Amino acid sequence: MKNRIVKFVCCCLTVLVAGDLYSQEKNELHIGYYYRLSDSLVKPFSDEIGKKMDLTIKLTKYTDLDLLTHDFRNEKIDLYISNTFNFLLLKSECSNIECMASISNADNQVFTYQSFILVRDTSKISNMDMLKKYSQNASIAFVSSSSTSGYLLPRAILKKYELDMIELSFSSYIFAGSHKNVIDKLLNGSIDVGVCSSTELVNYFEKSTSQKEKLKTIWESPLIPEGSLVVRKNYLLKKKLKNIVLDLHKTNPELLKNIFNLWRLKNAHHFIETKGEEYNEISTIFQSVQELKQFIAFYNLEENK
Do the Cβ atoms of 149 and 221 come closer than 8 Å? Predict the structure, then answer.
């Protein structure tokens, strides 16, 4: 009899705790976002989600990936607006997250871009083997230590060509701060090698078409998914949240258009349901996630000196 009473009390407590958690999740949605996304992009998106779900939104800008992982593990965050590399790291270190949706074009194809390693058209460097041969006489510019296309992917490829010690392999290296700055420096001759995204390269040459033929590509990455929404697996309102996000192009197309414009994503149209399989090819480039985390930490210090 005593055991039955104990079991009954435990069941009641479990129901009360679950009910309390459900009540909290019904009232507040915690949204995190990659720190390089602008507030002017994130806030209208989160406000719309909050309005449609009738929830108070708590926004957090994450600069620390370890803190982001900690918060997901401890259920302090429900939804995260992620870039490519953050998703790959989260996926490898956090079992209670999943990709909920990715940006798509009008044909329901995941919106992608590529990473390029570029040189001037007059350079004697024409491929990665030539870059390895002449690297010690060449300067290189990256975008920032947290940029997928402007640092991390090229960094992984350079390692495959035994150019992993940047400060020793090249005559000099810099973080230019933006893709545009990398292209500018490459065109004006202040650096010999530059890395940037295909999206930014297209945007740049729309305004400077005469300069397009002055650069050549010596390496290009596989397709990289642009922007994913990562959700906590056990978030109680996950289905409702997903349906609202997937229908935004119907319920508020002007808002979504403005968001994609701020994101500088031409031809992006809506969010499409995904499970993260679109990251499979790009993830093979990274041999060791932990090793790349260490590179990020080190070069982040260098970038901010």
Answer: yes
